[in-house]
Amino acid sequence: GAVVSQHPSRVICKSGTSVKIECRSLDFQATTMFWYRQFPKKSLMLMATSNEGSKATYEQGVEKDKFLINHASLTLSTLTVTSAHPEDSSFYICSARDREGWNTEAFFGQGTRLTVV
Amino acid sequence: AQSVTQPDIHITVSEGASLELRCNYSYGATPYLFWYVQSPGQGLQLLLKYFSGDTLVQGIKGFEAEFKRSQSSFNLRKPSVHWSDAAEYFCAVGAGGYQKVTFGTGTKLQVIP
């Protein structure tokens, strides 16, 4: 399958600071990227869907001003957690696909463990 | 809204033994069902999927799953587990194929010698 790389895999930041997580498609052009969040002992929850060159679509309950998503190129999407607080500590994972369509598989990155202290 | 339940948080099996991971879903229409595996430090990898047709689907690494509409289940099975199968397994349901995928909480599989 196609390769999606996330960076960093782990990050610790101080409360009140912002942190950026990158999601790259290494061997294909990603028209759509998805960002998920996993709370401890909870399922992966879709946060937002981003399409290259347009604004991200956020799921209900996700603060778009807190979780800034930028999909400026066909191989890179970034998630910035602004003014992070301890409750933002979580596992964030992205996925990407190379075209639209209900039958198009999305490939996942390895995830980023964010700890806010 | 769709949802997925994986009742077993953690399962331990002996190497060579058979495995069944349970998954129940809730969705009003025909479900699109998936099983993913995540090894430490790795992204989620698709093991298999059910979109339509034969209710017994074969996947990679010797896994299979059976869709049972009457029980709203999509259990994952493997006849003989290998130590390399130790990982976390996620069941998921999509509202339309790979669109709007909802994941379960995952089952962590431990394999003992």
Distance between the termini of chain B: 41 Å
State the major sheet of chain A. 7 strands, mixed
**Average pLDDT, all residues of chain B:** 92
Shape of chain A: globular
**Separate helix tally of chain A:** 0
Order of helices and strands of chain A: EEEEEEEEEEE
Number of β-strand runs of chain A: 11
Helix content of chain A: under 10%
How does the overall form of chain B come out from the CA principal axes? globular
Report the β-strand fraction of chain A as a percent range.
over 45%
Distance between the termini of chain A: 36 Å
Number of strands of chain B: 12
Notes on the protein architecture:
- The complex is a heterodimer of chains A (117) and B (113).
- Chain A has 117 residues and is an all-beta fold.
- In chain A, 0% of the residues lie in helices and 51% in strands.
- In chain A, the strands form two sheets. In chain A, strands 2, 4, 5, 6, 9, 10 and 11 form a seven-stranded mixed sheet that branches.
- In chain A, β5 (44-51) and β6 form a beta hairpin.
- In chain A, 34% of the residues are buried.
- By secondary structure, chain B is an all-beta fold.
- Helices cover 0% and strands 55% of the residues of chain B.
- Chain B contains no helices and twelve strands.
- Chain B has strands spanning 3-5, 10-14, 19-21, 24-26, 32-38, 45-50, 56-58, 64-68, 73-78, 87-96, 99-103, 107-112.
- In chain B, strands 2, 5, 6, 10, 11 and 12 form a six-stranded mixed sheet that branches. Chain B has a four-stranded antiparallel sheet with strand order 3-9-8-7, with no helix packed on it.
- Chain B is globular and about 40 Å long.
- The N and C termini of chain B lie far apart (41 Å).
- The mean pLDDT of chain B is 92.
- Chains A and B meet through β5, β9 and β10 of A and β5, β10 and β11 of B.
